[in-house]
Structure to design on (561 residues):
């Protein structure tokens, strides 16, 4: 970190002296202007000394200061060598027949001191201000917002490219790539060319996904003011400001127009060229339900999510969202009611601070600054990230980025939220917190669909399960489906873990606990039943231990929950 010339993160242990980045920027700009104006050697020398002391006082490492001074060397050397010989005045000395003047020497020293002063000031600014924050504070000095957004977006791509390059490089090294003698090997150059090609393709794919995420949050639309919701012939027009969190009461004046389903998928087919990703899929998602979308890799889950969010249109059949058929001309508007949290948060986060990113969607809804702030605060609080709202998202851990991505969608107050593999990369506590968050969302009446491979989570959480395989719907129904042996085998899933011990007990095979609480209650009932009844279940392959059962039944006079 100490060697960094441009810092992305704030240097640890460094105190900025001036707390607000825009004040810092203004102070440095004013001091830079003074440095340009002043020509007195003594004043410049004293100011350089003071700046140096202040930098050290801030905790900026001396190595960093010296490292940046080295950058001056080419310019400094130019000034020191040529200026004395090119300035008219009293001769000071002669070298190789060229005369250096006293005025020239003084001018060279002044220019050197100006460079040192400017360099110290910039070192201070860059060391105590993350680059993204610094760029944003340029707004306060009148740099047009559009230009800054463009610079920030380009930087985002630059960092993405760098991240992709680093991860590819690591992967290649872990598979034995080494650079010994690579300078002389034509094979190495060929490999390098291939790697660069793949790197740009990956960065391109990533930028495509970011573009999709931006458009999913209304970032690339023209008119954001009004949205209309149609159901068959009836049309209800609502202000986009209220489009999120629409409830049955909003439709009270037109009870017939309130749709029963968040999504209706009828005989939908979708292909990528010759690859049929979805083939005649049909199901309905009732409003307010909790749906788990499951199936093996390549089953078509992500494709289905793109259709449910109106980002792709079905090639045959139809998709209805809240009663309205998704078409090219209404996709943007319907999408505001359907929030998608993508599997990889890096595909979704593109702003320079956590709060900016979460505010992106609400701003696109045309909300006032106060409303945007209120939504950002509430959404960040609900995912436990309010304390980090001023941080750069690129400095966060994967799990924290996931929370920011969820907050970004929650701030849009969607009626229907889709999460693609939300549990992956979360630590156990993070998973529990996410589950609590999902419960909270459910209580607000939101419809939730989660694409997941996690059978245990789906069994405990979902009301409805959709099982996909090879682009076809194998089954749809309650979470009971996850206990059907033939079905779970066909869908390449496994029996929920909680149900497995019951399978090993004779007479207990039919027990299907969906949560730890249910499992505990079932065990308790089995113990009591075993104590009283001759039809007690026996552990497979074990002798019946009557004494143990009696003891347990004595301990659990009441169900444990
Ligand atoms: N952009 C694309 N171009 C070509 N084929 C694609 C593309 N995206 C997906 N496919 C193909 O469509 C099929 C369904 O893919 P999809 O990503 O929807 O599956 P999935 O169930 O989400 O898989 P996973 O669980 O691995 O994320 C797969 O056979 C996949 O190879």
């Amino acid at each position: 970190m100490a060697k960094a010339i441009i810092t992305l993160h704030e240097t640890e242990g460094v105190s900025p002296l001036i707390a607000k980045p825009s004040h810092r920027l203004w102070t440095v700009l004013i001091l830079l202007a003074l440095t340009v104006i002043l020509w007195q050697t003594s004043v410049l020398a004293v100011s350089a000394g003071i700046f140096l002391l202040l930098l050290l006082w801030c905790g900026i490492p001396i190595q960093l200061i010296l490292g940046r001074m080295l950058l001056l060397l080419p310019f400094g050397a130019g000034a020191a060598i040529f200026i004395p010989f090119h300035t008219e005045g009293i001769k000071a000395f002669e070298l190789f027949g060229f005369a250096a003047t006293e005025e020239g020497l003084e001018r060279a020293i002044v220019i050197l001191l100006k460079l040192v002063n400017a360099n110290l000031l910039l070192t201070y600014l860059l060391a105590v201000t993350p680059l993204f924050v610094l760029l944003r504070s340029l707004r306060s000095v009148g740099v047009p917002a559009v230009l800054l957004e463009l610079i920030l977006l380009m930087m985002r791509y630059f960092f993405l490219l760098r991240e992709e390059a680093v991860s590819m490089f690591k992967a290649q090294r872990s598979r034995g790539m080494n650079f010994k003698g690579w300078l002389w090997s034509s094979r190495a150059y060929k490999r390098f060319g291939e790697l660069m090609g793949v790197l740009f393709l990956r960065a391109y794919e990533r930028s495509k996904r970011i573009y999709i995420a931006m458009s999913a949050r209304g970032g690339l639309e023209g008119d954001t003011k009004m949205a209309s919701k149609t159901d068959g012939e009836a049309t209800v027009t609502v202000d986009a400001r209220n489009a999120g969190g629409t409830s049955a009461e909003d439709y009270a004046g037109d009870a017939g127009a309130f749709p029963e389903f968040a999504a209706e998928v009828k005989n939908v087919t979708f292909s990528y060229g010759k690859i049929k990703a979805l083939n005649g899929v049909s199901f309905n998602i009732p409003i307010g339900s909790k749906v788990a979308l499951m199936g093996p890799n390549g089953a078509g889950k992500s494709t289905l999510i793109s259709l449910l969010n109106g980002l792709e249109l079905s090639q045959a059949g139809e998709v209805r969202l809240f009663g309205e058929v998704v078409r090219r001309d209404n996709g943007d508007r319907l999408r505001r009611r359907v929030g998608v949290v993508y599997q990889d948060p890096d595909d979704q986060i593109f702003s320079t601070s956590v709060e900016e990113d979460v505010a992106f969607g609400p701003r696109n809804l045309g909300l006032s600054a106060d409303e945007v702030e209120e939504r950002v605060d509430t959404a960040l609080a609900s995912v436990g990230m309010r304390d980090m709202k001023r941080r750069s998202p690129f400095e966060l851990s994967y799990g924290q980025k996931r929370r920011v991505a969820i907050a970004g969608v929650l701030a849009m107050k969607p009626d229907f939220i889709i999460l693609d593999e939300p549990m992956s990369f979360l630590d156990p506590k993070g998973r529990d917190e996410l589950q609590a968050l999902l419960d909270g969302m459910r209580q607000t009446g939101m419809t939730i669909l989660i694409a997941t491979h996690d059978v245990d989570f789906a069994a405990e959480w979902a009301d409805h399960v959709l099982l996909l395989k090879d682009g076809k719907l194998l089954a749809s129904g309650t979470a009971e489906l996850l206990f059907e042996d033939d079905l779970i085998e066909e869908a390449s899933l496994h029996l929920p873990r909680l149900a497995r011990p019951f399978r090993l007990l004779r007479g207990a095979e039919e027990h299907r606990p969906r949560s730890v609480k249910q499992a505990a209650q079932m065990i308790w009932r089995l113990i009591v039943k075993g104590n009283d009844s001759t039809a007690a279940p026996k552990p497979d392959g074990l002798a019946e231990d009557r004494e143990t059962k009696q003891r347990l039944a004595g301990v659990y006079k009441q169900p444990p929950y």
Summary: The pocket of adenosine-5'-triphosphate is lined by residues 272, 275, 277, 295, 297-303 (CB under 6 Å). The CA atoms of residues 79 and 510 lie 88 Å apart. The two ends are 52 Å apart (CA to CA).
